[in-house]
Amino acid sequence: MPALTDNIILVAEGDTAQTTETGQDATAAAAGTEAHAASTEHKEVFPPFDPVHFGGQLLWLALAFAALYLLMSRVALPRIGGIIETRRSRIEGDLREAERLRQETEKAAAAYEAALAEARRNAHAIAEETRAGIKADIDNRRADVEAQLQKRVADAEARIRSEQDKAMANVGSIAAETAQALVARIAGSVSADEAKKAVAAVSKE
């Protein structure tokens, strides 16, 4: 009986040991599988998104920001500021020049308007003066023409009166000659003195 009991105990212990070893092997296999899964999962994560690298990334981000800030504040910003200031000065200069040109243009326009008004006044005065001169010249020529016409008329009238006087002076002799010729045909010859006396006597009657 004791020997059988000892054999049963040994068999039970052997089974327990075998079961324990089997459990350990299963646990090790499970741990290996989890480690392999974890390793595989760890390899599939993108490094920048891996929380393990966040510290280094933040450090490099701070260093890069500081370097970029220094570069911008020492190099880029002064140049940009200088360019902006130059452009602002140029724009202000252009605006001042444009204002000066505008004022000069306004002054030139005002001077042009004044000169145009003066020219119009001068042209009106010149036209009036020319008109008055032409009128005076015409009046003078008209007076000269009228004077010449009056002189010619007077001369013509004087000549006519002279001719009339001459004609009237010759009327007596012509009548005497005519009477002498008629009497000579009718009654015979008559002297010129007798004919003139007869005409004078008829004229007196």
Polypeptide structure, described:
The chain has helices at 2-44, 54-186, 192-204. The chain is mainly α and 205 residues long. The protein has one domain (48-204). It is rod-shaped and about 185 Å long. The N and C termini lie far apart (238 Å). The relative contact order is 0.02.
Number of domains: 1
| Count of distinct strands | 0
Radius of gyration: 78 Å
Structural category is: mainly alpha
Tell me the distance between the termini. Answer: 238 Å
Separate helix tally: 3
Helix content: over 70%
Task: Output the keywords.
mainly alpha, 205 residues, disordered N terminus
What is this entry, summarized?
The protein has 205 residues and is mainly α. Helices cover 92% and strands 0% of the residues. Helix 2 crosses helix 3 (192-204).
What is the topological layout?
Layout: H1 2-44, H2 54-186, H3 192-204
